[in-house]
Amino acid sequence: MLDIVDHGEIREIRLARPPANAFNPELTEALCEAFDAAGRDADAVVVSGRPGMFSAGLDVPELIALDQEHMLRFWHRFLQMLHRIASLPVPVAFAMTGHAPAGGIVMALFGDYRIMPRGPFKTGFNEVQVGLVVPPQVHLALVRLIGAHAAERIVVAGEIMDAQRALDIGLVDELADDPEQVVQRAIEWCRGLLALPRTAMSLSRTMARADLQRVFEGDYDVARFTDVWFEETTQQTLRKLVEKLAQK
């Protein structure tokens, strides 16, 4: 489900769960382990996908089959994965190599830098459109990145946007000319940081990201998300989504 490629002191963690790199329990567990290892073994991390598709978010067709206990476990582990990204002691650049809606951009919120390709690639937070609620930790990370007013507009409307709008509002930091260049630009960004005086850079980064780690203080409150997930109206919406995906 993951390909690990070392570019010298920079480790690339490449999502490799076709067709859409969607999150299920196994991919989430693999990512937790990969981030733990990268924090020990690498000086910087790049998270990537395949050209044209970074991640489509949650694997709804698989997750909708889980009972409430297993969904609670999955969501708790997913939030642990986000916490790991926020807490990594090394810089993390997200090479969002194509479409990155919902869980794709959610994961990238907790990194240091986000790059998308120019063109018709989509990202955003469509949770409300499928009857879900953005978790508090994700909302706080989004507010930190783009401001409270812009975050409110996006989250409440469940907005999906193109790469240019994502750049304009600060949701991503840079656009590459095409998907093939995204990973290389992420590696170059990491190398730029690593070329700085290491101790000063690392201590400054820790100070600047302390507020991001604080969004995970206290209980993850996974029951709130799973309660909404199992509401009948949400289940109906999710089942319709699964039917639509099956027709493609």
Explain this structure to me?
- The structure is a single chain.
- The protein has 248 residues and is an alpha/beta fold.
- The chain is 52% helix and 17% strand.
- The protein has 12 helices and 10 strands.
- The protein has helices at residues 25-41, 60-63, 68-87, 103-108, 136-146, 148-157, 163-168, 179-194, 198-208, 210-214, 222-229, 232-246, and strands at 2-7, 10-15, 44-48, 52-53, 92-95, 98-101, 113-117, 122-124, 160-162, 174-176.
- The strands form 2 sheets. The chain has a 6-stranded mixed β-sheet with strand order 1-2-3-5-7-10, sandwiched between helices. A 4-stranded mixed β-sheet has the order 4-6-8-9.
- Strand 1 (2-7) and strand 2 (10-15) form a beta hairpin.
- Helix 1 runs parallel beside helix 3, helix 3 crosses helix 11 (222-229) and helix 5 (136-146) packs across helix 6 (148-157).
- The protein is globular, with a radius of gyration of 17 Å.
- The model has no long low-confidence stretch (mean pLDDT 95).
The share of residues in helices is 40-55%
> How far do the termini sit from each other?
23 Å
Taking the sheet with the most strands, its summary is:
6 strands, mixed
Strand proportion, as a percent range, falls in: 15-25%
Total count of helical runs of at least 4 residues? 12
**Count of extended strands:** 10
Radius of gyration: 17 Å
* Poorly predicted runs of 5 or more residues: none
Mean pLDDT: 95
Give the CA-based shape. globular
Order of helices and strands: EEHEEHHEEHEEHHEHEHHHHH
Determine the structural class based on helices, strands and strand pairing. Answer: alpha/beta
Strand order of the largest sheet: 1-2-3-5-7-10
